[in-house]
# Entry
Amino acid sequence: MTAHALLLCGTYVAVLVALAIPLGGYCARVLGGEATLLQRPLGPLERGFYRIAGVRPDDEMHWRDYTAAVLWFNLFGLLVVYGLQRVQHLLPLNPQELGPVAPDLAFNTAVSFASNTNWQAYGGETTLSYLTQMVGLTTQNFVSAATGIAVLAALARAFSRRRSETIGNFWADLVRSTLYILLPLSLILAVALAADGVVQTFAPAAEVELMRAATGPEGQVITQQTIPLGPGASQIAIKQLGTNGGGFYNVNSAHPLENPTPLTNFLECLAILLIPAALCLSFGKIVADRRQGWAVLGAMFAIFLPLLGLCVWSEGQLAPQLVELGVDPSAGNLEGKEVRFGPAASALWATATTAASNGSVNSMHDSFNPLGGLVPMWLMQVGEVVFGGVGSGLYGMLVFAILAVFLAGLMVGRTPEYLGKKIEAFEVKMAALVVLLPSAGVLVGTAIAVASAAGRAGISNPGIHGFSEVLYGFSSASNNNGSAFAGLGANSFFYNLALGLCMLIGRYGIIVPVLALAGALARKQTVPPGPGTMPTHTPLFVFLLAAIVVLVGALTFVPALALGPIVEHLQMTGTHP
Amino acid sequence: MHSPKHKPARGPIIRRAAIEAFTKLDPRRMVRNPVMFVVEVGSVLTTILAVQALVGEGEAPFGFIAGVAAWLWFTVLFSNFAEALAEGRGKAQAESLRKARQHVQARRLAERDRHARAEQVPAAQLRRGDLVLVIAGDTIPGDGDVVEGIASVDESAVTGESAPVIRESGGDRSAVTGGTRVLSDWIIVEIRSNPGETFLDRMIAMVEGAKRKKTPNEIALDILLAGLSLVFLLACATLYPFSLYALETRGQGAPVPITVLVALLVCLIPTTIGGLLSAIGIAGMDRLIRANVIATSGRAVEAAGDVDVLLLDKTGTITIGNRQAVELLPAAGVKVEALAEAAQLASLADETPEGRSIVVLAKEKYGLRQRELANTEARFIAFTAHTRMSGVDLAGREIRKGAADAIGKHLKAKGGGLSPDVQALVQTIAKSGGTPLVVAEGSRALGVVHLKDIVKGGIRERFAEFRRIGIETIMITGDNPQTAGAIAAEAGVDSFQAEATPETKLALIRSKQAAGHLVAMTGDGTNDAPALAQADVAVAMNTGTQAAKEAGNMVDLDSDPTKLLDIVEIGKQMLMTRGALTTFSVANDVAKYFAIIPAAFAVTYPDLRALDLMHLHSPQSAVLAAVIFNAIIIILLVPIALRGVKVRPLPAAALLRRNLLIFGLGGLVAPFIGIKLIDLVITTIGVA
# Structure
């Protein structure tokens, strides 16, 4: 690894942690309903929302009511996006006069944005009107992220309470996370990005003279180019911060107007992990033991850093075949990468975007070296708990912490407890569901796809790679990541439906057990810590937690991976003829 | 004599367990254990496949399928054997207990009078509230309280203790247990339990494991194991369509044989812990029974492992039952020999342990021989609650001993009083935690006897161990705070409650529980019952009252309050053993993947052989070796499951590090070695 790569990754991690500390504290105050700096300017707005909606923010909810509110709210958002797509031809702001979106695609897209997956089976410019994009998708970018934060807040609160029937108010959590966390951060990031050249304008697309005339496919001379413009920076900011990932331009953050300079690249990359990392520390603060937050963050880094190292190292290499052709190996693997970023910054982005359930890209993961490409795929399959989605990554990780505590905790001779809460049958049942459901989505979905004619029809790349594509698609959907492996024709009735269902299961099949868990934990008595308590803030526990995440992820997917990427890799490197 | 202390012979138990391993194959029983049920279904499936291979065209050679099927059956049988072995000891005990219950006839009385009309009824027909007369030689027909009479009772059938005990009406020695025998005199017993709910019934159910309900932790673990099994079931079942797709796109090879998929599934699901889980639970209960403690439920035993506050009665638990005289302190101008002589005289007729200890002290330390006063004109004054003094009137001498205030009052009546120096001595002794006993002759105090509580040997170290593993010890005593504090310091308990009453005890338990602690305590008296009912783990003494026994969730047949400490360890050990074997079982899976995955796809994707880290002989030997390892490890771990992981007095953090290293890392490495060795063996002897 070069000094440049080390410096880049080192700076990235240092700045990430340095920003996560104050932000974590701030988020904890917001979620705790405490006064913050922004209360004065935004407070009237917050209260206005409550008044209009008829919500009393201090009315605490039972976990069932909380869950019902989450589900109704998300169903409402889902229906709005679905409806907008179906009738967009009747609505304004549709200059290209696009027709209604087909029901299956509209369903898939609506689920995708409600569930914070942002899987894109549609081609943006050719399918969706401006209104659908702005009112439907952009709104979901905010509220799907806020839903994740709200569910996490409920879970964290449950740990800090004792013998409580309630876990907070969903509407208050939703409004506060949007108003005090997502909006201000998006504003700051958008201004910073725009200041450094990211497009932010309401001007129409620019027509520019080409510096050198080009020849079209039919021999015609082309002297002009249309450069699409628009309010990019503001959208890009929430796309990165809210682990959404749906790009403003089709090539996402590889586009020079979406991500023009190394600085914007650094900022956008930072934004991917910023809130997920900060929320770990918020969690520590909410449960009144900051070490616990650091431990969870530590476990995430314990998985993230080695994989980052592997990916950066791998992309720093050049395939021996290319070296033989006389390519200078010192620049590393530049295929499919933007020259202004280079291999290190591209590998860093790829690792971060798949560690979090973001899915935005600044390079083509398909062109990565075999080991470099393995990293993003595997990071998704461990369940999007290494940073993961905003809120959702951490609540997933906390479920793994519960499993880790249960598996190892019995060994100290006491009923296992996490943060003073005894882990008993019900908690284990919910945790098992959380681990089981997305895995089932990936495995059963892939099995049906490769066994059915409808599923096989989408595979453009028959053979092992075709299998990998399907596996990747279902992994991405079931874990709410949203990134795709090129090659899978996913806009078909079968895939729209199957992947849509996987996204639903992967999101709400987890939210419901997590909230049930929160309800059960809040009701419990808290056991005071003592020398007989298994500590959950030590390096040993950090290691244990990371090991359980890796082990469960590995044990579940090794057979499938063996038939896809692993055998591909082995055939490519040719260790066995 | 059949008793819990009786150790059943090993041979018959093993023989019976081996037979029961087969009878337990009944799927209706197996379904209670989801992990092993999956293995049984797999065994049946592979057996059918083997038959198919034998009579027609199989998916793999007959020898291979039959080998896998056989070892899958062994896996189930080994697990059943472990369970039967754990149950074996209890079964033997249950039988001897049953004998104690058989054919007992009771004399049911019409009213509470020895001479009332009596009718002969079988014990099984007695109901709560019936009155029965039991005379010497009879077996007591049911649990109850003595309401009249006094008798010596042989309780060895239940406790294993052959020395008879006295049972009498009123007080804390009134409870009798059905199945025990009256040796002398007679008693009238009021029956307290209906048929089928008696102590003996409970005990039989307990040792037999017949009515064994899964404990909360066991249920949680079962759910986790079932969840893991489901994940692995998905991972293995989806491999079949995956392999079909691979086959089609490659145009070469063969689909994965069902036999191999079943083998992979069985190797991956946590069979090691799944197979031993119930054996661990039964063995834990058995350890408790061997310690002569009967628990009403497995839940209580598990709770004992979670306990972090122990309420310990000072007397009997921390100190040996009685105070002893350790020093004689004469008043100014009195010779110590004179004091010793007076103290001895005053105590000669005092049969209390304190009184006896004074005589012994006078003899041993001051060389005074014990004198025979039977023939002299001595008049002994017995201790009464009113005077709170005892003593002797002898040849014109009037010697008294008693508490300082009582003697003070006595002397004042005689025109004397306690001199300042005697009062100072009293103060000094009280401050040091001792009990001062003033000896007076006539109207003058001769000096003070220092009675001291003797802390049990080794108890201090035991408490230190408990502190290290995070268990707080609280001493409960009726003594004043000064005395209590001194003994607490000497015994090394964490805190104490002085001048305790049943109410303050109950309040203490409640406040500890409100703070999230789990509290354990022992008790025997009726006034202990509310506190026993409130405590999370409550051990009643067998000598105690029926009320106490009903309020508690365990009964100690030896009536040894120190036993609480053992009970906590047994509870912890049960949890630890489960955790250790679960960790071991899950860690095992890594190696099994490396053995089976390359073997399963050897034909379709020969490249996957690169994953064969162990360089196993052939795909078939690899699968077989993994299955054999999986079965054998169950048998190898049976001793740990039955004996339990050793409990060490370490803090949780250190314990976790240690056990993770042994069972986590060990579980990761062991199968790599084991599977390779088995592969070597079966290829050498030519099985595969």
